[in-house]
Every structure is written in structure tokens, then in C-alpha cells.
């Protein structure tokens, strides 16, 4: 059995589609402590370790964000906060002032099952708040920019969709979908099937499913 840490039924259905009935994916409603980090892989890995310790069963955590090149990747891991506080139109106004409006949606799936495997090295967040310092002290540095907690390895799978920011168009989707254009169409102008076909989350899930089936 695999536990997916999410309260989103749509994400759960998508995971089941990619992993198949044999994987027995079940929802886990668990409020992890999200760290302050500038990389979504580090955020997802930390949450995966917390969730595994909570249920003592294999878990996956998904984290995603919108990364705008001209804004040095902002809002990135702070996408939900920026949407809530600024709103998508103000994010678009920031990007509108730039000549380069290229952006990407990125998704990360983090897997932890308490067993040993070749974990994915993670970026070190050197500005992490105090509650996360103990975890850093237990970590073993592999390079100046990567860490791995030896007792709980985590495997990372990433999905990526390139595009650019545009003035809001379309009535569908959610979040930043109206201002993110891929191949001439915003995510908000796509129907569910069209969006799922290029989904950053779907691409990450596909990579994970292939690895998980072999595992």
C-alpha cells in the first residue's frame, strides 16, 4: 500500500491512474510542517520524511510551483502564498515589465518508505528556521550544495512544463492557469484532458510510477 499525503481528490485520482490498481494508493490527510526553502524538492522531501514517521508506511508527497525566469524563479515554492497575498494578476504585472516572460510549472514527487535505496541528493537550505536545525545537524553532507539524511532516504521525481506568462485568459483551471501559456494556449483555456496530457504533475507521476513498479 502507498499513502499519498494530500487533501485533493483530483490529485489522488491522477496518482491512481498512473500507478494502477495494484499499487493501492490511499489518501493520507496529514498536516506536515512545511519548511522555508527555496527549492520545492527540499520542501517535499522534508514532508515525506515527516509523513513516513507518522504512519510507518510508504508515502509520497507532491509539491509544485510556478517559476518565472525573469523574477529569479519567483514565486516558485512560495506560489500558493503569492497567489493568496498578491493574486495572479499582480504576479502577471510583475512579469509584464520584463522582456523575457518565460516560465515553467514544476512538480516534485517525494517518496519515502524507511528502507535503503539510492536517494536523490537535495539542496541545502542554509536559511532554514530554527525548528529545522536539528534535522540539518543529523544530515550528512555529500557536497557543499547537497544533503541526504542517512536514516530516511528520499527519492525525488520531477515534472516540468515550459511556457510563458501572458495576460489572463480562459475560464477553466485554477491558480495560475489563466496566466500560464503553453504552446499558444493558457492552461485555463484547456479542457481537463488537454491539461492532463501536458501536466507537470502527470510527468512527475509517470516517472515515479515507472520506478515504483520496478521497486
Automatic annotation (TrEMBL):
Keywords: Hydrolase. One of its GO terms (molecular function) is hydrolase activity. Residues 124-139 have a biased composition (Basic and acidic residues). The keyword Zinc-finger does not apply. SUPFAM superfamilies: ITPase-like (SSF52972). The keyword Transcription does not apply. It comes from the Archaea. Belongs to the HAM1 NTPase family. This is Non-canonical purine NTP pyrophosphatase. It comes from Halorientalis brevis. The lineage of its organism: Archaea, Methanobacteriati, Methanobacteriota, Stenosarchaea group, Halobacteria.
